[in-house]
């Protein structure tokens, strides 16, 4: 019984202490006297774009001479469904010859490197490792004179 009396007395003291320094919470109903919610130098919100777009790298386009096999390859790509990312074909100088590189149609697939006759030389990149089939591992290091030949317009 004595124990319960001391607990009750403690609760009364605790309740009295809490109500003496009363704190209220609520939403202000009038504007601050300064006219500013935070600091006077807080900028006003804007809906304008505050980030300048970086222009895409423009590549020199080579549309002057497309071999017949390449025209057929482009037609075949256009007959397929649209890919994401878009298929691109670029030309380079590699191992003292002109080559055509076709981007991979999607995720973990190989890109294709063709010679001027349309024969597949290798798959220089892509695949699960991203390093291609290993038959021309030096391609990315030794390719030069990059020119855009074609990109899927869809």
Question: What is the compact description of this entry?
Answer:
With about 150 residues, this protein is an alpha+beta fold. The protein is about 25% helix and about 20% strand.
Plain-language structure description:
It is a single chain. By secondary structure, the protein is of the alpha+beta class. It has a domain at 68-151. 23% of the residues lie in helices and 18% in strands. It is built from 3 helices and 5 strands. It has helices at 2-20, 68-79, 139-142; strands at 88-94, 97-102, 112-114, 120-122, 144-151. Strands 4-3-2-1-5 form a 5-stranded antiparallel beta sheet, with no helix packed on it. It is elongated and about 100 Å long. The model has no long low-confidence stretch (mean pLDDT 79).
Write the layout of secondary structure elements.
Elements: H1 2-20, H2 68-79, E1 88-94, E2 97-102, E3 112-114, E4 120-122, H3 139-142, E5 144-151
Antiparallel strand pairs: 1-2, 1-5, 2-3, 3-4
Signal peptide: 1-19
Biased composition (Polar residues): 36-49
Region (Disordered): 29-49
Q: State the helicity in percent bands.
A: 10-25%
N-to-C terminal Cα separation, in Å?
Answer: 87 Å
Number of helices: 3
Biggest β-sheet strands, sense, barrel: 5 strands, antiparallel
The strand count comes to 5
Average pLDDT value? Answer: 79
The shape, in one word, is: elongated
Class by SSE composition: alpha+beta
β-strand amount: 15-25%
Nearest-angstrom radius of gyration?
A: 35 Å
Order of helices and strands: HHEEEEHE
Low-confidence stretches: none
**Largest beta sheet: what is the strand line-up?**
4-3-2-1-5
Quaternary organization: single chain
Protein name: DUF6970 domain-containing protein
Biased composition (Polar residues): 36-49
Region (Disordered): 29-49
InterPro entries: DUF6970
